[in-house]
Each structure stands twice: as C-alpha cells, then as structure tokens.
Amino acid sequence: MAIECLEEVIRIFGNEIYVYHEIVHNKYVVNRFTNLGVTFVDAVCEVPENSILVFSAHGVSPQIREEARERNIRTIDATCPLVTKVHTEAIKYARDGYNIILIGHEGHDEVIGTMGEAPESITLIETPEEVESLAFPESARLAYLTQTTLSVDEAGRVIESLKQKYPQIESPPKEDICYATTNRQQAVSELVPQADLVLVLGSQNSSNSKRLMEIGKAAGKPSFLIDGVQELNPEWLENCETILITAGASAPEVVVQELVQYLEEEHQAEVETATIRQESVRFPLPRELRAL
C-alpha cells in the first residue's frame, strides 16, 4: 500500500516529493523512487516549506506531524494500517493509566514512532533476559505491545516471560505482528527441512527479512539475505540440490523473479511454488488520496 501510495502521489503531484525515511525498508524500491526524483529525508527540517511530504510505512510520532504542520508542509500518511493499530493501542493504554511494555528493536523506525505516542508510559525491551530487569510493582497496570515485524517465536518467548513475572499483564485484543510477517515465517519453518540453502530477497535494514534468514540459520541451513541476484555468491550453490527462496514483506516480485530466472537459465533449475497460506488482505490508499 505504501509503495502504491507514493506512486499515486507522483502521478498526481509530480516527482518533487519528499518522503520521511525510506518508504519501505527495501533498497530496490528506494533506488527506483530516487531515480524518479523523490527525495528521502531523515528530518522534517530538510523539507522545504509548502512541500509535499509522505510518511513512510513504518509510521511517525506526533512530534514529527507537528513539525510538518509548523512548516506548512502538506503530508500524506502511508503508514501501514497494522502499525497504526499499534499506535492506537499505545494511546489507549497510556490514557487508561497503563505502563506499556513494547517488545521491539531499539532504533527501528516503527519503534521510534510508536514510542513517540506515549514516551512517558512505554518501556522498550527485546529479549526474555530484559524482562528480569523490569521493576514494576506487582500491583502495576501493565500491557504489552509488539513491533509488527518481529520473529513470532522470539516475541512469544518474551511474552511468556512477561506473563510469568506479571500475570496481570494485558495483551492487545489482536496480536500485533503483521500477518504477512507471520505467514512468511511459517512458510520458511515448514519448508526449510527440504532445503540445502535458503535465499531471502530483502534488504539488510528490513527487520522481517532478517527474521526469515534467522529461521533458516536456526534450522542449520546456510541462509543469506540479498537485495537481488547481483548479490548471489556462486559458491553458495555448490553441492546444493534444493534452494528455498523467499522474500521480505516489502521486496518487489521483480527481484524474486530475476533470481528464479537466473537459476533456471544458468543452472537449469526446476522451479516448484509452494503455497502455505493464501493472503487476500488489501489496504486502501490513504484518505488524503482517495479524496482527490
């Protein structure tokens, strides 16, 4: 949705568009938009007044929105609705007097945005070991939320530790981890026993792509995260009969097919598509665009 949103913004307003952070964490996608004339920025002060600024799929804090308003910048919000859901939950829990424990990776764009909704109420942790260092009293009102792109298994271990230490802790009405992330992790877990090598199409700063690579490594299989076929090391293919190919949630299909085509043409590979779960979810464009 975020990629489609930026494409539509360019179609309507031209290519003098600014995006706060990378629209998605994928090098191929970012380079394509950069070549079209889009400017990616890490601070609102880099955006000229009266310009158009798109917020990335990872969401932003209220402070960033206020900075944009102060500079008379027209904003279009391409935040993933699943991330918006976590922001809404953080606001609600903070308003109701809860201490919120956010499970996520420090410094990730999504985590920064979520914590910005209620910084005085949110404590960030990443591992079960960090649960032991929490010092909330037994009577504290606690709730947990998660970054949407975490490993399901790793998040589950942290949640279990939280529930053991704080049985009263509340969970979000529906889990926060993105369905696309969950489905890909399940697929790799089920298929990796059949593979000699795991190749994940995605960028190094993509959290959900890294999780897929880690699942392969945890299963004892050589596993690599690459942006495209140009990063493929031929030595990885030696003595391989079966290669498992998957992709991060924001990796475009074209990079997957380029890799598949290379293996077919250069190594006479036979390709089998395995469907573990069908996805039918589709998010509408932001209302700012639907109104145009």
Automatic annotation (TrEMBL):
Q: What does this protein do?
A: Catalyzes the conversion of 1-hydroxy-2-methyl-2-(E)-butenyl 4-diphosphate (HMBPP) into a mixture of isopentenyl diphosphate (IPP) and dimethylallyl diphosphate (DMAPP). Acts in the terminal step of the DOXP/MEP pathway for isoprenoid precursor biosynthesis.
| Protein family membership | Belongs to the IspH family.
Taxonomically, the superkingdom here is Bacteria
User: Which key words are in the record?
Assistant: 4Fe-4S, Iron, Iron-sulfur, Isoprene biosynthesis, Metal-binding, Oxidoreductase
Q: This chain belongs to which protein, by name? A: 4-hydroxy-3-methylbut-2-enyl diphosphate reductase
Which co-factors does it depend on?
[4Fe-4S] cluster
Q: Which residues form the active site?
A: 110
Q: Which GO terms describe its biological process?
A: dimethylallyl diphosphate biosynthetic process; isopentenyl diphosphate biosynthetic process, methylerythritol 4-phosphate pathway; terpenoid biosynthetic process
What residues does isopentenyl diphosphate bind to?
25, 58, 108, 206-208, 250
Instruction: Report the EC code(s) recorded for this entry.
Output: 1.17.7.4
The annotated pathway is:
Isoprenoid biosynthesis; isopentenyl diphosphate biosynthesis via DXP pathway; isopentenyl diphosphate from 1-deoxy-D-xylulose 5-phosphate: step 6/6; Isoprenoid biosynthesis; dimethylallyl diphosphate biosynthesis; dimethylallyl diphosphate from (2E)-4-hydroxy-3-methylbutenyl diphosphate: step 1/1
Positions contributing to (2E)-4-hydroxy-3-methylbut-2-enyl diphosphate binding = 25, 58, 108, 148, 206-208, 250
Write one Pfam family the protein is assigned to: LYTB
Residue positions annotated to bind dimethylallyl diphosphate are 25, 58, 108, 206-208, 250
Any one Gene Ontology MF annotation carried by this entry is: 4-hydroxy-3-methylbut-2-enyl diphosphate reductase activity
Reaction catalysis annotation: isopentenyl diphosphate + 2 oxidized [2Fe-2S]-[ferredoxin] + H2O = (2E)-4-hydroxy-3-methylbut-2-enyl diphosphate + 2 reduced [2Fe-2S]-[ferredoxin] + 2 H(+); dimethylallyl diphosphate + 2 oxidized [2Fe-2S]-[ferredoxin] + H2O = (2E)-4-hydroxy-3-methylbut-2-enyl diphosphate + 2 reduced [2Fe-2S]-[ferredoxin] + 2 H(+)
